[in-house]
Amino acid sequence: MKQVLLLAVLGLLCGCYTTTVSRGKLSDPMNKASDDYKGERVVRTRDSLVVPPESLWVWHNAPGHRYPPPEPAPQRRPLTNVFYSIGFNLSSGLLHGGDFYGYRGGGLSYEMFGVDKRDDIRVNGEKEKPKGSRFDFNVKFASAPLQETSRLNRSLTGGVGLFEIGGDADFFTTPYYTFMGHYFIVSLHYAYMGWSYRNAVRTEEGELIEGDALQGLDLGLGMGWNPMQMRYLHIGLEATTGIILWDTYTREGFENDVFKPFLYLQLSAMLKVNWD
Fold it and tell me: Is the pLDDT confidence value at 71 over 80?
């Protein structure tokens, strides 16, 4: 048992002072270090570094040889490319309540679409396709005809007209360069609704009032689908649901006790002309 322990200690000591960096045969320096050697005392060492697979310590600490640095995690660069477009849309929708048939309209938009145009980036070894986001400044017009049996139909002529101005934020779930695209929508618009009375009314002060209007705030959520995305042309469909919250007082100063908040469902078809 003592012999075994002694051999183990000797092996450990040998392991601490030996190296696997081969500099040639030991006999070469032994001979040239002798008093009998009369020539130049220079030993020839091998040019190559021989490292057995198990010699990780030597490989790590050998001059000029280091473990390769770990691959840095991909940095998500900010949006580097912006596309612009002008859009035209036609829409149709339903309004909650029994006074209206629904509404139909159209609008114009100006869009900015930002995207990182790298083909592919790797995240945790997996390819990730670059996506984008778009912001639309838009103006919309619509008319909402009244049901013939509606109480409002006996007071108003031609239904009501709607005007909205605001913006949509679109967040794409598909890469910008695919032929078809999908995105989610968050919208915020200022709304203005006007109407004309069938018969003008007059105030006690003698002022003639032929119509009135309400302002409000339109909040919407939805999704869009582009069945065709080309470089300079996009054709898209959108479905949006939301609510229009009306002001307390009308333009003429009357307290609003007629129009409750509008709940709506809207379908739109769009054509967008792009440039960069």
Answer: no
Looking at residue 214, its amino acid is: L
Return the closest-CA partner of residue 236 out of 174, 157, 188, 193.
174
- The half-sphere exposure of 165 on its side-chain side, counting CA atoms within 13 A, is 2
Listed residue (170, 202, 186) closest to 242, CA to CA: 186
What's this model's pTM, rounded to 2 decimal places?
Answer: 0.67
* SS3 assignment for 58-93: HHHHCCCCCCCCCCCCCCCCCCCEEEEEEEEEEEEE
Rounded to 5 degrees, φ, ψ at 47 are -75, -30
Q: Are strands 132-144 and 126-128 parallel, antiparallel or unpaired?
A: unpaired
Mean of the per-residue pLDDT values of the chain = 79
Task: State the CB neighbour count (10 A cutoff) for residue 143.
Answer: 12
Using CB atoms within 10 Å of the CB of residue 64, give its burial: 0 to 12 exposed, 13 to 18 middle, 19+ buried. exposed
Q: Give the distance from CA 188 to its chain's centroid.
A: 18
CB 189 within 8 A of CB 218: yes
Helix (H) or strand (E) holding 29: helix 27-32
What is the Cα Rg of the chain in Å? 39
Rounded-to-integer distance, Cα 231 and Cα 223, Å = 21
Q: What SS3 state is found at 53?
A: coil
Q: Which residue has the higher pLDDT, 44 or 148?
A: 148
Between CA 267 and CA 124 the distance in angstroms is 39
Asked if 167 and 187 count as a contact pair (C-beta separation under 8 A), the reply is yes
